[in-house]
Each structure stands twice: as C-alpha cells, then as structure tokens.
Design goal:
The protein has 412 residues and is of the alpha/beta class. Helices cover 34% and strands 23% of the residues. An eight-stranded mixed sheet has the order 12-11-8-13-16-17-18-19, sandwiched between helices. The protein has a five-stranded parallel sheet with strand order 2-1-3-4-5, sandwiched between helices. Strands 6-7 form a two-stranded antiparallel sheet. Strand 18 and strand 19 form a beta hairpin. Helix 1 runs parallel beside helix 2. Ligand PMT binds next to helix 10, helix 12 and strand 16.
C-alpha cells in the first residue's frame, strides 16, 4: 500500500534534483536537463561515480547552469553540509537513468554515495526512470526492489520497450526526455485537480469474473478491466490509498496500487465485503457474472449428447451486499456502481441505482468503440438529484472526470 503523498506542482520554477546513475542512457539525461530548463525548471545535477564514466560533469554544468555534485566528499560544498541543503532544496528527486544498482541501493536504504544519501535525506517526491538490459529489468530482484519503492510512494516512469544498446529488444529503455516531462506533468496535474483524494481509501472492483464449469471451461465476459484500472491509476496518482480487486485480466498494476486478484464472483464478493468498511469511496466497475454453473465438475465434461442444458444459480450481488452491510453505519463510503447497458441505458441505470442502494451509478452504453474492451467510453453519472454527462473520451480521461465529479460528495 502506498503512503499518501502530496505531489508538488510541476510547473516553471520547479526545483528538480536530477540524479544520473551509470548506464548508456546517461546521454539522454543531457537532453532531459536541457528540456527541463526550457520548461522553466531549476535543475541541479548529481552524478554517481559510474555515471561519470558515461557523461562528464562539465556537460551537465553547461546544460544546467548550476554546479554539478559528484561526491559526498566535496570539501568545499560539504563545509556547509551541502548535501542536506541540496536535499531540502528539491521539489522532485528525479533519477534518470535509474540503474539496477541504484534502484537496489534505494530499496535497501543504503547511503554509500551522494545520490543514495540524498534519497534518504530529502522529502522531495522520488521519481525513477529505469534503464537497463531487458533481462536485468525482468529479474525478480529488480522487480521486487521497484515494487518496494513504489509502495513507499515512488513514481516509476517506464521503461520503454524496444531495441537496446546491447542488441537486445524488450522493456528496459529509458523513456525519452519529452515523455518523462509529459508524465511528470500528468502526475502533478492529476494530483492538483484531485487533491481531495490524497490519503482517502478507495476500493475499486474491476475486470470480469470467470465462473468455472470444469477444469478447462468457464463462463466469462468481455470486460478488459481497463475502466477500473484507469480509475485506480488516477486515484493513486492523486495520493489515494487504492485497493484494486481485480478479476482475471492481463493489465499491469498501476503504480502505487494494492491489487488483489480474484477469479469468480464469490471470491470478489469476499474481498469487497472485507475491504468496504474501511473505504472512503467504493467503486464497482467490475462486470460480475450474475449467474454461475450450479455444478462445477471436477473433471472435464465429456461430449455425449447433441444438446446439453446448463443449470445456473445466482451469484451474490456484490455492490448490493456492500450497500446493505454499510447502510446502518454512521460513516460509510460513497458507494458508486457502473451500469453496462446495450439499450435504454439511462432508464435501466436509474432503476439499477435505486434497486442496489447506490449513491451514484455511472451508466455506459456497451457498443462498438465504447464500454467493454474498447480504449474509449462514454459515461453519464447518475445520483439522487443529479445527472452529469461525462462525455466520450479515453478511459483515463473519463476516470479523472468521474473522480472529480465524485469528490464534492465525499464526506471529509
Ligand atoms: O473492463 P472494460 O473493458 O474497461 O469495460 C468497462 C465496463 C463496461 C465493464 C465498466 O465500465 C462497467 O460498466 N462495469 C459494470 C458492468 C456490469 O456488470 O454492469 P451491471 O449493470 O451488470 O452491474 C451493475 C453494477 O452492479 C456494477 O457496478 C457491477 O459491478 C455490480 N454487480 C453486478 C452483479 C453482481 N453480481 N455484483 C455486482 O456487484
């Protein structure tokens, strides 16, 4: 679980402490320094000993217009405790490239050089742009180190996927300077717009459920999880403590999100009932199977007749049960469902909201280019006395609009 963070703005004048660690991608940090300066940021650069083997301090001095630090043992700077002053100065500590070694040191909390010491001594938001060989990046040790840092509130940007300097191809390239700046801007903007979510507990269900028939077959649906994951990502960026209860889907867990994987409606129900009482906001974006096979065969069902009947039994209604469980509480989360409809969308959604006891329901029309599987969607948020058309957009944009519309209804 990530710690609540209050992101600093990312705007002209922002103070960026740029840590450069050893790797061929260090050359991209030169372009990054230049672009950050053009953007209006103040940039001070710290090089690790290995970074200096790739690019010299003189280059960064020329590009940043500031003295470059390379060692804890700089007598002149350290006469005035320069590393502490630098740690306090920064709004963001951006490490690009972040090598496997630097990531490991940060995860461990070691302080054996200037950059790792600064990472411990600063309150600045830590951002890492990893760069390494794809095999190294995939290694369990690197993944576990990154996961630890994300849990402590770090933002990880990238890496990009593609051809690498070593001749390999895969995930490990450092993002380009323009991509890093755009990601930082997104993080800061989301956080500012949605800052009321900082520290709030948000529980989200997402994706489909699979109801097993036998060891090889199941009943499922076309939900990709993209809508629910987008909401989780945007809420986490804003500093919310996000629990994402995910049905079977292949999506990457967004940074800073605690994910619980489930397979069927009953396991999603159990996780939702356990998480909901601690939530400030509960959003049910999952497409839950209303029915499951009455019998789950332990062996593969054999083809024997030309026709076959499948007996189904009702699954629990997760969000309705959450509403019932919390109805009598003095303080309860804001309860938001989704309605996926193919016809008479608004009428069906309004009725569903009342039937389930929800504060709000987000109605979406499932069809070509929107709703399930698609990158885009169109939502109308329906409450007791209000209906807000959130429009058609990509799911990340809609997630932002949805959360912004819900914020005024959170009990503070
Ligand atoms: O995952 P994507 O591909 O991005 O697609 C997103 C989406 C279309 C799945 C999503 O936007 C959406 O509409 N999710 C709800 C889909 C759905 O199952 O709607 P429903 O009308 O059947 O259910 C209404 C509400 O009750 C939903 O909040 C659902 O999570 C909840 N429910 C339904 C059945 C059940 N047994 N338990 C529930 O909690």
């Amino acid at each position: 679980m990530t710690a609540p963070v209050a992101y600093p703005a990312f705007a002209p004048g922002t103070k960026i402490l740029l840590g450069v660690s050893g790797g061929i991608a260090a050359y991209k940090a030169c372009e990054l320094t230049r672009r950050l300066k053009e953007f209006g940021c103040q940039v001070r650069v710290v090089l690790t000993e290995n970074a200096e083997r790739f690019v010299s301090a003189t280059t960064f001095h020329a590009l940043s217009g500031e003295a470059v630090r390379t060692s804890l043992w700089d007598t002149h700077a350290e006469a005035a405790m320069g590393h502490i002053e630098l740690a306090r100065w920064a709004d963001w500590l951006l490490i690009a490239p972040a090598s496997a070694n630097t990531i490991a040191k940060l995860a461990l909390g070691s302080a054996d050089d200037l950059l790792s010491t600064l990472a411990l001594a600063t309150n600045a938001q830590l951002v890492l742009a990893p760069a390494m060989n794809q095999q190294m990046f995939a290694h369990a040790a690197v993944q576990s180190n990154l996961a630890q840092l994300v849990q402590r509130g770090a933002i990880v940007l990238g890496p990009g996927i593609g051809a690498q300097a070593c001749g390999d191809s895969g995930a490990g390239r450092m993002l380009e300077a323009a991509e890093i700046i755009s990601e930082l801007t997104n993080h800061a903007n989301d956080a500012n717009e949605l800052r009321a979510l900082c520290g709030k507990v948000v529980v989200i269900t997402a994706g489909p459920t699979y109801e097993d028939l036998d060891p090889v077959r199941y009943l499922g649906n076309r939900s990709s999880g993209k809508m629910g994951f987008a909401i989780a990502e945007v809420a986490a960026r804003a500093g919310a403590l996000v629990n994402l209860i995910a049905g079977p889907c292949m999506l990457k867990t967004p940074n800073g999100v605690a994910r619980i994987d489930v397979r069927d409606a009953r396991s999603m129900h159990a996780q939702a009932i356990s998480a909901a009482p601690n939530a400030d906001l509960f959003i049910a974006a999952a497409a839950v199977a209303d029915y499951r096979p009455a019998v789950q065969s332990l062996q593969k069902i054999k083809k024997s007749t030309d026709e076959s009947m499948l007996a189904l039994v009702k699954n629990p209604d997760i969000i309705a049960d959450v509403c019932t469980l919390l109805a009598a509480r003095a303080t309860r989360p804001l309860l938001v469902g989704f309605a996926a409809e193919t016809e008479t969308v608004l009428e069906n959604a309004r009725a569903k909201r009342l039937r389930k006891g929800l504060d709000f329901i987000a109605a979406n029309h499932v069809g070509p280019g929107k709703g399930m599987e698609a990158e885009g969607n169109a939502l109308v948020l329906i409450g007791t006395n209000t209906e807000i058309d959130l429009g058609y957009a990509d799911k990340a944009t809609l997630a932002k609009r949805l959360l912004a519309a819900l914020i005024p209804h959170l009990t503070h």
